[in-house]
Amino acid sequence: MTATPSPTLAQSLHFWARNASNESALLQASLRLGLFAALPVEGDAPPVSLDALARELRASPRGLRSLLELLVCLGFARQDGQGDERRFALARTAAGFLRDASFLSTLQAELPWWEPLGLLDEAVKRGEPVPHGGQRWDVLGHYRALFLDAPPALPSPEAADFFDRFARSGARTQLLITAGRLGLLELLAASPKTMPELGAATYLTTSGLRVLVEVLAKLGLTREDGGAWGLSPEAKQLLEGKALAYLVRSLSVSAQYWEALGKLDETVRSERFILDLKDPEVSRRFYADNSNQITAVFASHFQLSRRAATTLARARPLEGAKVLDIGTGSGVWGAAFARATPTTHVTYFDQAVVLEQVRRNTESLKVSDRARFWPGDLFTQDFGEADFDVIILPQVLNVLRPEALPGIFARVARALRPDGVLLIAEYVLNEGRDGPLDHLYFGLRRFMTNEGDLLSASEYGRLLADVGLTSTVCIPLPTQEMLLAARQGVSLPTQLAPADSVARQEPARGS
Ligand SMILES: C[S@@+](CC[C@H](N)C(=O)[O-])C[C@H]1O[C@@H](n2cnc3c(N)ncnc32)[C@H](O)[C@@H]1O
């Protein structure tokens, strides 16, 4: 058996910034809900259905499903069967430690720390325990215990790995959020500094700063040399140029989920959403931060969307095509189609407030003369009849609750010309719905924010066939999937165009 290679620092940093807090929250919510206790042990008793578990735990089936699919993907649970016939059990190795009373009490002792860990910046400012819920919490001491002191004696290496995911993963995300928010990462990136210099530059306590830099060193991000702390050579290389600002922005998005992740069990039980993005005020605040992120990733998404446009153009020429980009965001998908030929005309649809940015982006990409801006609400908008050759739904279906999908698909199918093509760019799950892991974490966040569900290609296929789009193909892109759908007989590409074919199709500058 070959050992799994250790992740690189780049992979770890990506995980800590985006998904490590999801991982701890998933495992802590599963324990709080009694899910580990309710699952029969693999091989000892028959596996159970989602509905039976939901009844026993008095929890929302959809919420419970979001947890179970992740537990299966991580190997802590097993599933048999497909679709509604799926049955779940606790993996035998996981049962080895999750049925151990003393290990369970070690896990239980970590549960009250989620909210106090969210006060790490306060602890670093004070350098002493912070008040929360009528008690004082030694957050810095807890970080020392988790990362710097000798680890607790645990029953097996598998139990130690579980404990790490359960308690330390989320603490790593919060450490990075705090280091980003306090400006510490920028200071360390600029030049190595002694502890008193760091204290003077940040007005923070040196006792608090010391815990931060020492735990960051444990993660391989900082290093002390001759009494001065700076980024480690590997971290320096990773965070060069715009990468550090990009990391800090993505950490600020992760920070928005912290409170809701700590109450994930309540959301799974009752579908009471702590971060409810269907609440207009919450959504406005959230997306104001998120839109910086969308703009920051424009360049990398533009490469992706241009490759998708080139791929479609190989099967269905786009000369003179009318394209509708629904939920356009930055306009990155529609603009890629506008750049595919000098005659494509693109309609960009989104909330009015978002379209201002799209207007600027189409101007700088020199495609504004073939652009139309259409403000509206995608939940209710009539998109017309047989008006468009291509309709794009890029990363937008995941904001719609599952019951809204048949309605939008019907409106979109009606708006497509007979030989029109619908392009969905989404995180599409595998057919077992137990991977890929990053997609499942993204789906967990959509559930906890009262948004959409992720589907497999065949689940999309069934919904699209219901509105007459019976021909579908799913083509993996580098970070997400592209699903193309059309009426019978319309030719669709089956493979992604090579990356170097995109540049060859680039129209002359200024056209
Ligand atoms: C996740 S972003 C995707 C942005 C872009 N398509 C991309 O791939 O980068 C979702 C977009 O849907 C838009 N949106 C959400 N709810 C909407 C609604 N009810 N009506 C119109 N647009 C909406 C948001 O403003 C946002 O721009």
Provide keyphrases for this structure.
alpha/beta; Rossmann fold; 2 domains; 3-stranded antiparallel beta sheet; 26 helices; globular
Which secondary structure elements does this structure contain, and how are they paired or packed?
Layout: H1 9-18, H2 20-33, H3 35-38, E1 48-49, H4 50-57, H5 61-74, E2 77-80, E3 87-90, H6 92-98, H7 101-110, H8 114-117, H9 120-126, E4 130-132, E5 135-137, H10 139-148, H11 157-181, H12 184-190, E6 193-194, H13 195-202, H14 206-218, E7 222-225, E8 228-231, H15 233-238, H16 243-255, H17 258-262, H18 264-270, H19 280-296, H20 298-315, E9 322-326, H21 332-340, E10 345-350, H22 352-364, E11 371-375, E12 388-394, H23 405-415, E13 416-426, H24 437-448, H25 457-465, E14 471-476, E15 481-486, H26 500-504
Parallel strand pairs: 9-10, 9-12, 10-11, 12-13
Antiparallel strand pairs: 1-3, 2-3, 4-5, 6-8, 7-8, 13-15, 14-15
